[in-house]
Amino acid sequence: MPTSRTPRAAVLGLTVGSLVAGGLALAPTASAEPSKTIVINEVYGGGGNAGATYKNDFIELTNISTAPVSVTGWSVQYTSATGTAWAVTGINGTIAPGGRYLVAEAAGTGGTTELPSPRTSGSIAMAAGAGKVALSTTQTALTCGSACAGTPAVVDFVGYGTTANNFEGAGRAPAPSASVSVSRNATTGADTDNNAADFSQSAPSPENVDVADDPPAPRNCPTGTIAIGTVQGAGPASPCAGEKVTVAGAVVGDLQDGGYRGFHVQDAGDGDDSTSDAVFVFSSTPVSLGDQVTVTASVKEYEGLTELDGATVTVTGSSALPAPATLPLPSTTEQREALEGMLVAPESDLTVTEVFNLNRFGEILLAAGGRLISSTEAADTGGPSAQVAADNAARSIVLDDGRTTNYSTTPAQAPPYLTVDDPIRVGDTAQLQPQVLSYGFGLWRLQPADGTADGNTFDATNPRPAAPAAVGGDLRIADFNVLNYFVDFPSEFGDDARGATDADELAEQQAKIVTAITALDADIITLHEIENSANLTPETPYRAVETLLAAIEQADGHDWNYVQAHEDGDVITNAIVFRTDRVTAVGAPSVYNGPEFNNARSPIAQSFHSGNETFSIIANHLKSKGSSCGAASDDTMVGGAGNCNADRVRQAQALVTFAETVKQSSGDDDVLLTGDFNSYRYEDPIDTVTSAGYTDMAPLLAPDQYSYVFDGGSGSLDHVFASPSVREKLTGLSVWDINAVESFGYEYDAPYEGLYAPYAYRASDHNPTVFGLTTDVPATATVSNPAPLRGDTVTVTGSNFDAGTTVTLTLRERGNAVVGTGVAGANGTVSIDYTVPMSLKEGSRQLDLTAADGEKASTSFTLRHPSEDALLRVLRDLPGR
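Structure (tokenized):
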């Protein structure tokens, strides 16, 4: 949808091909081929001059062919002898063979005689002695100077007088004066494309003979009052386009006052289900819903909508509105064409699936069968996602408010439906007043029959959540895109400052973000789209993060710190902040600044310790889909992954490699990848990460929860990936649905300020995510053979110990004597071999693993009677066993 909606253009401009700009030339090029139909017959620029007979300048055309020729849409044009600014007089009609077409131009103060009645009158003041005249097949002014003759739009050209810098052939036409014109030689009457040979001086002899209006085109539609279905036809365009018709019916949609400047009229039908029984009438004649009217007008197609224009409207009575036709959804274009302009009612409840244009144009995208899911969130790229995209289009339709108003332009106005505490959210259910089905601005749309949005209501089937859902665990980790949170302003930094325009806007933005962040009640937060102060104010490289944390600390009373790492090139960066009373940073942070991220934000990593767990978090923000990265990277197929898909794949590959170095540095395999991957669930970058062993946790722990809404579809660009060793330690995840499903009208920088409130809703355009992590995971132990023979060697394996911790194996039967030692690996696992003594008695025997920090885990094995062991050993050692 365009950002500016102008229902009617004041002027319909015509374009021509490239025209050569002028300059002086002594040997102009002749036209490609002499005209064989219409030529310039006479040029006179001395009208009204001293000594002139005629009061007006004129140009006369003639038809040198043997058939009538229409010149409708053509023009005669004039500029000075060396000029490039052409004056235009449009012409029309049909010239018979040998006919003369007279164009009267400007009058002077002299002269004694009026011209014969001209076919067309213009206002061009032509020079008497030298100039240039062109006959063009368009009414667009030429822009050339010395190279006009021979250009595609020029049918004939005359350069007259000794100073004309462009002419046909070897020489200029002679100079006329107040008493003589230059006219085509009567001896031949032909056009040889040589002005010097074709024209001579003579007394002016203007004529207008054998010129008539163009004959009417054959009609496709009958005269008299006809069915609207006949006007609409069964295809996308009317078979009656360009013809004047008369129809009669009831006014079923009154859109005269909101900018559409017309109404919909519907008749009783023609019995053909493939043709619509209604049509839009572009007219300011006052009518009301239910009026019976007769309309005589010309049929035209306006941006895909069949309409009646230049209408004569007669109100003949009034009646009740007809019963609405059923609008099926999903539906094809052909099904909608058959209902164009009619009073309709959807056959089932419709769900709000996007509110992007609500604060601008009062539009809401609705869908049958629930909210739409973005194609690559729902299916693999290629055929499956293309089918989802097609299904989404068939299921959805725009609900318009009957107005062309852009509510966001100065002075901004309140959009329909919204109040501070009563929003319309994606997922809500529409309760619609009577609607007509229309088409405009490239989309099918429902328009309110009464021209106002007042009768539409919405059930809050997706109400605002007061807080995130419970996620369990003893540590809460969140991910939050803070929507270009900048503490520096465009007044100083220009376009590099992408956020609030001044301190007042920053205060409003910050209030919403702080409210949302404190409600998340997180212990660690990865942030995205926060000002990279290291680039804007290098002397205070973390000023934006510090400013935000100061506000958070004031709101929640906790002590917060941040990881001292940032993006190296962009003006926005990832950031990691944490509560110092809940976690401890382990080691130095790390940043990956490889070339893969030259057009994105570098991932930053930090390891933490809490409870019994050491784990690492990597904050990410991959290249967006917003701008092209070139044909080799973009996936532009219908339902595809969008721009820069291959770039994001390379970034994902670099990320998983970087994560391995983080594991090695921390000594622990527990790694969490969080942030804005700018990729939906089934896109290649996500496959790259999951193929490396990571699990996308939201589909597992929070199915049908999404972080983003775009182009009508819901999906998650933001992800939490867990390495295998940490996956089972995540206890829950919630995508807090406070931003993506809400109107931009609630943002801090919305043009209309009457909807602002410092609550969390629409603090950003991405929904935040919060998840729970269990850090007090008990150690476990297993034995490779729970029923060994004496003398066998078994392996005792312990899990969930702290990486690098020394673990001892003791046998309780022997007074907890140490029978083996090992060191827990990066994944917290230790394995110790133990040979069962021959002297142990039968029964269950317990083995204990004890870490240096006191963590314990136990397992056991069971021994048989020694005689059974002996028999089993003999049997085991028999050949072939």
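Residues 645-666 form the longest helix (22 residues). The first strand starts at residue 38 and ends at 44.
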